[in-house]
Known about the structure:
Layout: H1 3-16, H2 26-42, H3 45-71, H4 79-89
Amino acid sequence: MDRAVCRSLIREVNRASILSREARPKTTATNFRVIFEQGHRSGSNRFDYDLQNALTFMRSQRMHKTLLDRYNPLHDLTTEERIKATARRVGLDMPIHTPEGEDGS
């Protein structure tokens, strides 16, 4: 098993985490360590292949999210927020004016 692949996989897990390193559950690191040790003991090429596939998948997911955020900034908004932002983009977001005499004064 290639140590570089294991380190890269751990880095990707860290980058994907929304929690700080201190706040992350220790069980994640422990589980990865057990998986790596079991795979190392088995000595199978299949395990190395699966690790490389997992690494490629995680990198691709991160890149996809980065590109989605960059080129489609409305993707994480609610439907109502998305409609307002789209209308604002094409100049349809106009201020609401009260006609004189109807403002209650």
